[in-house]
Write a structure and sequence with these properties.
By secondary structure, the chain is of the alpha+beta class. Helix content is 25%, strand content 28%. The strands form three sheets. A seven-stranded mixed beta sheet has the order 1-2-3-4-5-7-6, sandwiched between helices. A two-stranded antiparallel ribbon has the order 8-9. The protein has a two-stranded antiparallel sheet with strand order 10-11. It is globular, with a radius of gyration of 17 Å.
């Protein structure tokens, strides 16, 4: 399994993944989440065109999971990460998030952020296991951008169930400067507008990491549209 940029012809597949992943909410009494429509194709196309949509693909190069990201207040914000149920429990979500962390590090961003359901087992508890911490009132990490996203989600009806903002710090890249000496540094931007070369590593994969080109967009403070029902 590897991670690469989403292709235009795959956007309907991303919608199918989102619908399938959303079904897991139905047994929890969250039918409204399961029934919520995925992001429209034109919105998904915007993420893809701006280099902010990645897919995890199987051995036949078919997407089994995807991630969308915004840059909010200097952090890479996970707008959506969804994995098809047929590919669950294989580390796909973790690999997508680690891929984003690598791309964000290359751009000098210092954290990943997201908003998620507090009491859904594969939401907040899962992200806590991946190193995310809850960000509440009084925490300087609760930025204006995160507040705006939470307000947009509430307007979309997601606040019927408890939700929380979460954040994971990104360690600065460590580079070897001399024999026996390791220095910490953040790399500069490579050639091309916003392009960054990163390695996508899937836990347990037998093949070496694949190098792909990804872009993280300039900061903004709120999503362009209300979020879809997140499988995160």
């Amino acid at each position: 399994m590897r991670i690469r940029a989403a292709e235009a012809a795959e956007l309907t597949v991303l919608q199918d993944i989102e619908r399938a992943a959303g079904e897991a909410f139905r047994p929890l009494g969250m039918a409204a989440i399961a029934d919520d429509d995925p992001l429209p194709l034109d919105v998904l196309a915007g993420y893809r065109d701006e280099g902010r949509a990645w897919v995890a693909v199987d051995g036949a190069d078919r997407p089994v999971g995807y991630l969308l990201t915004d840059t909010v207040d200097g952090a890479a914000h996970i707008e959506q990460v969804s994995v098809h149920p047929d590919a669950a429990r294989r580390g796909v979500g973790r690999a997508l998030i680690d891929h984003l962390a690598g791309a964000a590090r290359e751009q000098g961003l210092t954290a990943l952020t997201l908003t998620t359901f507090t009491e859904v087992p594969w939401n907040a508890p899962y992200y806590a296991r991946l190193g995310f911490r809850r960000v509440g009132e009084g925490d300087p990490a609760l930025t204006d951008g995160l507040r705006a996203i939470s307000q947009a989600e509430a307007a979309h009806g997601l606040a019927v169930w408890p939700r929380v903002c979460m954040r994971r710090e990104i360690a600065a890249q460590r580079t070897e400067t001399a024999p026996g000496t390791v220095a910490t540094a953040t790399t500069g931007k490579p050639a091309g507008p916003g392009a960054a070369t990163v390695s996508a590593v899937v836990p347990g994969a037998a093949t070496p990491p694949a190098t792909v080109t990804a872009r993280v967009t300039p900061p903004r403070t709120a999503p362009a549209v209300p979020p879809s029902a997140p499988s995160r």
